[in-house]
């Protein structure tokens, strides 16, 4: 289709329309500046920018040079690290050397971007240098003098939000497992504290003299427990797991606990029930334990005598008994405060059960409770039911497989078909020996 040039308006007409629109816009702008306060205009513009700004998947961490009047050690560490990442494309650097410095100090002089990678995660560092609207006072860490600073410097660390959970994984992998115990053996009615040291027990599942099938089932159960957070929340149960380790002394119950802690990177809280005087003490101890931890009560059958929930069944009284001893109901009647005090200063089986799977058991996540005992039959059946002790693990006497593992560890005998093994297996099957007894003979 041919275009007729006669239909196009002349340049003077277009320029006149443009001038009219420009004059109208300037008139509106002048009226807004006169009628609308500057703060209101800035607020409206900020809201418009906030609404129409492009959405980003990046997360940003700001590391400022100063924290109040003092320096920020994180900023210093970041600056030291980034000086090793300087690339040739950086245009300006600041170099200085004080009298006591060994080498030359290199710092950034203007806003720069540095690409970095850590464990497959792409990171971007930005050095920001801007003038302060108001001067601030800072302390020189070398001379302790108060200085006036008019500049603000900080680093920005940007990364994709999808990597935020990766930080938890890295932290868990580098975590140092702690062993917590009560600070002293006195009564903890007024103050209960945990004291901790690093757990340096070298036990792992590879060094345990256990049956391979039993060991595999334990590892699978632990893996299933730690990844079922949503399942426990869905069914309305506390995220915890109970294990009962029972068997003769010296069969590796403590070593298995250390292996579980090293495998999961969980802290261990070693609770001596003899230090717990009442149920309220136990609740305080529970509230002071962290998530992702193991609470251990060793030798629960002989640590303390727990009063039964129902108590001993009372025999019917004769006339002679009534004349010799007052009835308990009479004691409660005439000394009610004494009765309440005595009852409140007891540590009962009910308190322990409420701690395991009652309301107080839901005050934390990802908890493991482990009981150990030499005699499973001595425990109250209420402690053993599912939901309290979910998995019962029998630590038996030494087996042929356990002996081969110990021989490989202590004697460097790695051949499973060694000619001596057949004779030794017959001896092990005909006698009861614990791994601890055999390990002592290797020393």
UniProtKB/TrEMBL annotation:
One of its GO terms (biological process) is response to stress. Residues 239-399 form the AAA+ ATPase domain. It catalyses: ATP + H2O = ADP + phosphate + H(+). Its cofactor is Mg(2+). InterPro entries: AAA+_ATPase (IPR003593), AAA_N_dom (IPR025753), At3g28540-like_C (IPR058017), ATPase_AAA_core (IPR003959), ATPase_AAA_CS (IPR003960), Mitochondrial_chaperone_BCS1 (IPR050747), P-loop_NTPase (IPR027417). GO terms for molecular function: ATP binding; ATP hydrolysis activity. PROSITE patterns: AAA. Keywords: ATP-binding, Hydrolase, Magnesium, Nucleotide-binding. It holds the Pfam family AAA_assoc. Belongs to the AAA ATPase family. BCS1 subfamily. PANTHER family: BCS1 AAA-TYPE ATPASE (PTHR23070). This is AAA-ATPase.
């Amino acid at each position: 289709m041919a275009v007729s040039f006669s239909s196009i308006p002349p340049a003077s007409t277009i320029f006149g329309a443009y001038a009219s629109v420009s004059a109208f816009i300037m008139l509106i702008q002048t009226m807004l500046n006169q009628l609308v306060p500057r703060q209101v205009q800035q607020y409206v513009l900020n809201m418009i920018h906030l609404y129409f700004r492009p959405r980003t998947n990046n997360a940003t961490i700001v590391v400022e040079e100063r924290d109040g009047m003092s320096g920020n050690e994180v900023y210093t560490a970041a600056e030291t690290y980034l000086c090793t990442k300087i690339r040739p494309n950086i245009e300006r650097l600041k170099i200085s050397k004080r009298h006591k410095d060994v080498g030359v100090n290199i710092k950034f002089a203007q806003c720069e971007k540095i690409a970095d990678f850590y464990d497959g995660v792409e990171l971007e560092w930005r050095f920001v240098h801007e003038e302060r609207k108001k001067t601030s006072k800072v302390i020189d860490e070398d001379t302790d003098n108060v200085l006036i600073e008019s500049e603000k410097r900080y680093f920005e660390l940007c990364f994709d939000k999808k990597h935020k959970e990766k930080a938890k994984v890295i932290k868990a992998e580098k975590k140092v497992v702690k062993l917590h115990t009560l600070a002293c053996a006195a009564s903890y009615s007024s103050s209960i504290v945990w004291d901790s040291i690093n757990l340096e027990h070298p036990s792992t599942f590879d060094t345990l003299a256990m049956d391979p099938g039993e060991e595999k089932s334990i590892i699978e159960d632990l893996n299933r427990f730690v990844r079922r957070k949503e399942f426990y929340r869905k069914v309305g149960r506390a995220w915890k797991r109970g294990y009962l380790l029972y068997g003769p002394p010296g069969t590796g119950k403590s070593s298995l606990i250390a292996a579980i802690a090293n495998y999961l990177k969980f802290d261990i809280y070693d609770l001596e029930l003899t230090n717990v005087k009442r149920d309220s003490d136990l609740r305080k101890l529970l509230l002071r334990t962290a998530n992702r931890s193991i609470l251990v009560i060793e030798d629960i059958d002989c640590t303390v005598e727990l009063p039964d929930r129902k108590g001993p069944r009372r025999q019917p009284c004769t006339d002679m008994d009534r004349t010799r001893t007052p009835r308990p109901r009479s004691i409660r009647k005439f000394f009610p405060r004494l009765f309440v005090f005595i009852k409140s200063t007891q540590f009962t089986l009910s308190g322990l059960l409420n701690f395991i799977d009652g309301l107080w058991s839901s005050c934390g996540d990802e908890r493991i409770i482990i009981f150990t005992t030499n005699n499973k039959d001595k425990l109250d059946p209420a402690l053993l039911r599912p939901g309290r002790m979910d998995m019962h693990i029998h630590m038996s006497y030494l087996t042929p497989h356990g002996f081969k593992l110990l021989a490989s560890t202590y004697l460097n005998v790695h051949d499973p078909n060694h000619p001596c093994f057949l004779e030794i297996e017959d001896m092990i099957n005909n006698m009861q020996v614990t791994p601890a007894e055999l390990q002592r003979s290797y020393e």
